[in-house]
Amino acid sequence: MSPRTRIGIHRTAFVSLCLTPTLLLVGWIAYGAPQRSASVDKSLWEEELSWILGLDVRLEGVEQPQLGRTVLYGVTISDPEWGPMARIRAIELARTEQGVAIVASQPEFQADRLPQLCEIVHDRFLRTRRASDLPVHFLAGEVTLAVESNDPLERPRSMTLTDFDLWIAGGEAGPQLSTEFRLASAPDAQPVQFRVVRKNQLDAPPATWWSFDTRPNSDLEATPLPCWLLSQLIPSLSDLGADCHFAGNCHGEKTAAGWDGKLVGRFHDVDLLQLMAQRRPRGISGRAELELIAELNAGRVVYARGLLDAPGGTIRGDLVDAAIEHLPIKLSPTANRPPGDLWRYRRLAVEFDMNRDGVKLTGWCDTLGDTLLEGETGPLLVREHGAHSPLLDSTRTPVLNLVRALLPPTAAQIPAARDVESLLAVLPLPPPTSSQATVEGEAPSATLRPN
C-alpha cells in the first residue's frame, strides 16, 4: 500500500470518526441550548416580574436579540382576587444612558382596575424608590382602556390613548411620576398631563401630591376627558352621567384627614336626571354645562364657585316648592303653575358662590341676575330680595337649606340617611355660633329634659 493511499485512509477515518461526531454534537448543543435557556429565562422573568409588581405575570415567550435588550411576548398581568388586569402583546426592555426603557406594543388595561394599578405603581415605584435607582421610561404608541359590564343593559366602554409617554425618576421634592398622552378621538388636540410626587424626603409626615391637566397650554383648546374613565378613580363622578366630559385641571394631596386640593374646570354634558337620581329621583331632567372652581380641605369643600347652565328640560313641582321653601327664591309673579306636577323650562342658569358662611345664588337668565329658571313665556323662579340671617352675610343662605331643597323632605329630616350623609360630608361647615362655643379648658355639658 502506497504512502498516499495510507494518508487518504487516515484522513477519512479522522473525518468520519472524530470530526463529524464533534460537529454534530456542537450543532445539537447550539440548537437545543437556546430553547432550554429561553425556557429557564421565561420562568425566571415571570417570577421576577411577579415579585416586583406583586401580581401574577405570565409570558408566552422571551427573546434576547442582543446583550442588554430583551423582548417579552404575550404578557398577561392578573390579580388573584380581582382577575385579569392587563394584556400586552410585546414588551421590549433595554438599558440606556437615560435609564431603563420599556416599549410596549398594543397594551390593553382593564379601566375598572385602575385604582389597584395606581396603588401598585405608587407603593412599589414611588414610596420605595431610592435616589440611586435608574429612571424608568415607559412608551406606547397606543394604550387601550376598557370596562366590561356584567349588566346586559349597560354597554361596554373603551377608549384609546395615543403617544403615551411615562417617566418615573427622582426629584428634589422626592420620587415622581409624570406622564402625558393624547386621545385617539382627538389626535390634533394638546396632550393631557398627569403627575404624581411622593414627598418623602423633605416633608414629615410623608405625603403624595397628585395633579392632572387637560389644558397644559392655555393658548390651545383643552382636551375633555370622559368622566366614566375618571370615575374609576373618583367614583362620585359617575353621578354626572355616561356622556359627561371634564376639561380643566386639578391638584391635591391626600392626608390622613382626607384630600386637600383645588379643581378648576368645566364639565360638559352633565345629565341632571342622573345627578339627582340618588337624591330626588326624576326631580329634574336636562343636559347642563357646569363651570366649577372648588377648594377642598380634609376632604370637605371649603369654597366653591361656578355656573350651572341647562338649555331646557323638565322639573317636578315638589322640587320647585322645596326651592321656594328653603332658598331665597320665589315664584315669578308672571308664572303660572302647570296643570300637572311637571314643569317645562327653557333655561336653567344659576351662578353659585359657596363657603362656610352659606351659599349665594344669582340668576343668569336675565341681565339683572334675578331669574334662575325661565319658561317658554317668561321667568319661573326668581331671587327673593331682602332675605337675610343675622348670623350670615345678608346675601347668603345656610348650606343646610340647600341640602333640604335638594333632598326629599323625609330624607332631609334624618341626618343619618345616606343621601344626607353624602352631601353633609363634603359641603362647607358653618362657623360656630356663640351658643356653640365653650370656655377654653372646660368640657362641654348637656342636660336631658324628659317630656
How many strand elements? Answer: 22
Q: Total number of helical segments?
A: 8
Instruction: Summarize the biggest pleated sheet.
Output: 20 strands, mixed
Portion in beta strands? 35-45%
Task: Tell me what you see in this structure.
The protein is of the alpha+beta class and 451 residues long. It is 22% helix and 39% strand. The chain contains eight helices and 22 strands. The protein has helices at 3-53, 114-126, 227-230, 272-275, 317-326, 399-406, 409-412, 418-424, and strands spanning 56-58, 61-66, 69-79, 83-96, 99-110, 136-147, 157-169, 176-183, 192-199, 207-213, 225-226, 245-255, 258-271, 287-297, 300-310, 313-316, 329-331, 342-345, 347-355, 358-363, 371-374, 379-383. It has a 20-stranded mixed beta sheet that branches. A two-stranded antiparallel sheet has the order 16-18. Helix 5 runs antiparallel to helix 6 (399-406).
